Amino acid sequence: MNDNLIKHIRKHIDLSDSETMILSKYVEQSSYKRKEFVMQENSDCKSLFFVEKGCLRMYFINEKAVEQIVQFALDSWWISDLKSFINNTPSDYYIQTIENSIITSINSEQLEQLLTEIPKLERYFRIIMQQELAAAQFKSKLMYEMSKEDLYNHFVTSFPEFIQRVPQYMIASYLGLTPEYVSGLRKKKL
Amino acid sequence: MNDNLIKHIRKHIDLSDSETMILSKYVEQSSYKRKEFVMQENSDCKSLFFVEKGCLRMYFINEKAVEQIVQFALDSWWISDLKSFINNTPSDYYIQTIENSIITSINSEQLEQLLTEIPKLERYFRIIMQQELAAAQFKSKLMYEMSKEDLYNHFVTSFPEFIQRVPQYMIASYLGLTPEYVSGLRKKKL
DNA sequence: CGCGGGTTTGATGATGCTCAAGCCCGGTGG
DNA sequence: CCACCGGGCTTGAGCATCATCAAACCCGCG
Q1: Which residues does chain B have within 8 Å of residue A63's beta carbon, measured at their own beta carbons?
Q2: Which residue of B has its CA nearest to A85?
Q3: Which domains occur in chain B, in start order?
Q4: pTM value > 0.85
Q5: Is A120's Cβ below 8 Å from some Cβ in B?
Q6: Which tops the pLDDT comparison, A63 or A133?
Q7: Nearest DNA or RNA nucleotide to A35 (CA to C1')
Q8: Which residues of A155-187 are buried (b: 16+ CB within 10 A; e: fewer)?
């Protein structure tokens, strides 16, 4: 049993050991091998996923039938399709591991019950949502203001750990670029 | 005193009249004329803004010195620069009215105090943040998958009310287009 | 009537995509 | 231990999309 989620929660609110026990009744933890699916398109499993350890990507298939990555998640990050989660509708996305990973998940009914039992977790999730929204706003700003070349260079220098763990063509996809174009950029930088 | 915020909160949680009184001690409401600034770049006023009535835009100035709009807000929407709000750092953005508007705002210290006095508001703000994040994810998906032409057409048919209230060049900016390009698209559709 | 914000026009050009092919390298089976 | 296979990365030619720039136009408002 990996307890990064507990640690993460305790960064934001106090959580007694008995509350921790209650929490563990509502969440589910499992291991995935590289390239396994945590969530499939059209699945009815509407959950929030917490990466205890590992690396995930969330993507959809566009009209040209190619995978379009919209988000990565590394250790101690939450990831989910919130539209689907909130409305309880099928998701357009796939969530898949990039490395062997350990994931803790909670679906919407479980979350509701958990929040009734431990209301102060509302605060934790408010803070998480707030942070994720801040991150989304920031990414959006970068995509508005930067040329594709600058976007790539900025990403490489800002998140060097990704370059180690994630293949180039996935980074390209995430940034809205083609693998060929990224290849050209790398050549140019030498 | 406009009470759309109260109504909005009551859609999500119960709020007694006495709690409403407490709430009103922490928030601030004011009217703005068309084109007034609700927040200036580099200001230290780190607040969440709720549009009781009216229409706002949030934008920054890019390296070519042109305004880049990243978000609109109509009646009963929240808007803010969360990165600045969370970290208490100066904002890169301007928030300005497009029409005469009534805005209710709350800054981060006030919010913290309010949440201590009425903890169940944590739930309300969690839900709001969740919804905003869902909206941000959805917009991001559209910008990944659609051509600029499709983006514009989709926006026009999905949000006809904006076309009435917001000048074309602002819509163009929000969608990452030039006014000239949008002009060309409209001509083409006749 | 004149001013100014917003929109339109059209010519020119850059950015970054498409497509097809080849290459590199690590893993697997013979 | 070598040969092959395949996923990922690279190359280059051709091209589409959309931005840029400068100018004119339109129209509501003072």
Answers
A1: 145
A2: B134
A3: 4-114 (2.60.120.10)
A4: yes
A5: yes
A6: A133
A7: D7
A8: bbeeeeebeeebeebbbbbbbebeeeebeebee
